[in-house]
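Homework help thread (please don't just give me the answer)

Our assignment gives two proteins as sequence + structure token strings and asks us to describe the second one. The first is just a warm-up. Here they are:
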Amino acid sequence: MRRNIEHVGWSHLSYEIRQIVSVANELKELGVEITWENIGDPIQKGEKVPTWIKEIISDLILNDKTYGYVASQGVLETREFIAEKVNKRGSYQVTADDIYFFNGLGDAVAKIFGFLKREARVIGPSPAYSTHSSAEAAHSGYDHLTYTLDPDNNWMPDLCDLENKVKYNDSIAGMLLINPDNPTGAVYPKHILEKMVEISKKYRIFMICDEIYSNIVFNGAPNIHLSEVIKDVPGMALHGISKEYPWPGSRCGWIEVYNQDKYPVFKRYIKSLLNAKMLEVCSTSLPQYSIPLVMGDPRYKTHLEKRKKMFEYRANEAYEIFSKTDGICVKKPHGAFYMVVLFKEGVLNNNQSLPVNNPKVKKYIENKVKNVKADKRFVYYLLAATGICVVPLTGFYSTKEGFRITLLETDDKKRKWTWETITHSIKQYISTRA
């Protein structure tokens, strides 16, 4: 072609959570039965949406208004409903004009970074959620900038590392955090969030807080939102219904914007997101109409509490099984539905393997593990030997070696079998090191 049409940052678009599916599917063709532990889809793992929620959505389907366009910013009554919920937290007050709807948070993230000035960087956590890290790196054309989450401190942010990186890199215009965190399951206490707000204020940067799991908090962790500590710092919180109803296929998410009227540049940036949404006309109508009806129903609180207890039980069950295994380190999750299994330093090498009985599968995986990172090598062998598909921790923009599991399997026997099979495989894998 006469012109180079490649975007400068396209090579940074990486999503290991989905990419490993292609490997699993090829192994499936070779006869391996796959246990999918790679993606946070409650529906795929057997969770049922309550009948009363389905009935609300079914009634909406029969309403002609759900088939038409809505306002580009989102359904007004839904935005008013969300604003009222935010304001009941008692700190920062928003209006419907501070709420913006998108086709899922993936769409929101793409626009948040896609319409940010290329030279303006956003620093995020490591381990990182791939959607954020890839979008930020792609928009800039450089590797994603990160601060460390400390596994020795329950995966809390290393605030000294964060402040030093912000202080000495004036290209950093924003700070990203995920609370509760994916992939670690950490939940940040108020004093940690307040310190991050202080850093943002001191260095005049804005904040992005992904709160998609904010109503999945357990094991005594606090449920603190960015709106409760943001004060006069510009920022936004990201929310959605995919993990809560749960309805991941709805692709319905929104951002709550704080302090846009105090910062003209930030307000113009937020306006660019709305203008981009106008080019699409609007986000999907039906799920937006459902939010006041579902979240405003008295049964919704009971629904959330039931799910919290369910994930708390599974988190504690997973911790009990994995914490007894030599060579790894785990921290008990306090939110979301994930847990990181971290290999201790020096445990992995490029000579380890697991027995694979099928000759075709063995040949395939031996070719696949050439020149891959050590934790990915384990993940590939685990997949070939047992069919269990997990995600390597280095796939989350991390230098630490490990993998992420989910707490989603609804079949109690299968869930326990999965975790016990993984721990047995870890012991077997580590014992083969040369």
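The one we have to describe:
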Amino acid sequence: MSNKTAHSAQDKKVIKKMFNHSWFLFSSFNMVKMQGYGYEYSMLPAIDEFYKNDPEGKRAAIERHSSFFNCTYETAPFIMGLNAAMEKENSLNPDFDPSSINAIKAALMGPLSGIGDSIFWGTVRLIAAGIGIPLGMKGNILGPILFLIVYHLPSIFTRYKLLEIGYNSGEKFISKAFKSGLFELITNCATIVGLIMVGAMTASSVTIKTALKWKMAGTTLKLQDILNSIMPGLLPLILTLTILVLLRKKVKVIYLLFGVIILGILGALVGIF
């Protein structure tokens, strides 16, 4: 690892720039990569600093952080800080596995979103609204002002501190993990957790059922019941894997979106769905 003391000024500069960029996490939000491009923009100060003499490494890092990302606004900076520390190590250590960077990111998105949503969307926002709405209903300008202050001051403080903690703890943790051989195990576990999260999202978000049925010997056989007895969620799995194969064949996302829409309409018209 690099010398922490020698690079403390550099690290603070990177953290500050990343925090400023993190305001734009939701910029270029879309339903394919969600916060992916905003996350890449937030990571850009670290990428520029650590790969300033490595154009190929910089290109790979930009591509790496343009992938799918979705996390609560307030807790996402912890992942940014951790990823920045990993990018720093990757730029210095030729034995570092860069695939672990996205693996850690995928593993932390879900848990940190659960924590962040509960605290900020489920608690802080309600407290801020409880203070601001009564004043606003009376026409008092302090209503919206207090709402913004009560919500955003904790939000801003949390985002900066989590970014700082993620970066600093990431450096120390990565150094210890490499020396002990623990990092490979963590990478594998993070990859598994990330795949589980993707599988859970697919099972809960992709809904497709068939309405096909036949009458045989006085009994109505429903194809969906037969498929469920073989494997629940089989049709969503087939659709998801088909989309994955087409994406790997470089089929444009817009074509896939319209294809799914057309398939759903035609299938409903002929009674398949």
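TA reply:
I won't write it for you, but here's a hint about the kind of observation we're looking for: Residues 8-201 form one domain.
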